[in-house]
## 1
Amino acid sequence: MDERLKEIRKALNLTQEEFGKKLGVSRGVIVNMELHRAEIKPLFIEHLCSIFNVNEDWLYSGTGDMFIVNDQNTKEAVRLFRQLTPDFQQYALSQIRGLLEMQNKAAFSAAIHKSDEDMEAANDIDAEVNSYRHELEAEENAKTLSALQNTDKSIG
């Protein structure tokens, strides 16, 4: 079972620390379980299966799928994928990776665009603040000049 625990972590692409954090245990606990230095308790197994939708039968015996698929789209994708030959499975995976890369680039581009819009808005606000500051300075200068002129009139 310790090897299957490591397989789950690797399939989820998590480090021992990240895996432990999501399960509420330390990295050391995960290391010890993976190296069979610590017993994997039933309560931990239940928690692991609940958090990551792990198939408990697979975890205990290695039979069945590693994960329990809950949503219809994923179930259909897995069903269709299994019907493909290994060559077409590899091709499908490369296409999915390409789609994911496109999605990530689009999200990054949108974030940059949003950042540019935020920067423009901030610049507009800065311009308004500077304009208002100049108006206040002009009013203050006018008051000071008026006060100086009144002082000169009263002295003269």
## 2
Amino acid sequence: MDNSTLALNGFPRKYRLITANDYRKVFSKAQKVSTPEFLFLYSTNEKADSRLGLAIAKKQFPHAVDRNRIKRLVRESFRETRPAIESTDIVVLGRSKLLKMNNNQIRKQLDSLWSKLILKKQTSNITSSSKG
């Protein structure tokens, strides 16, 4: 695998929320998109790229294999959706109802939430630009 393929398929640091402060900024001024299975908290950042943070709690998912499966599916869907989302920090929280879902069902939920998030961002951008 060459570096260009890795850049497209990987999850490099520049696309991740790393520090507690990164997460704090999102939690403090978060907008929300949710389903019974997921909660997406997001806020605009000053960077050109969008970044993803995961909050998949051990309390909700006691088995590491379940937490890792959820995180892998979220990261994969974010990689595919990232070009359509600009300058946004996103924290994804999982809810215990995910344990009853298979991978295809989870992917459909994620695709639906990314679409809602993109639509909400576009709507808020139009609203804010018409005010100015």
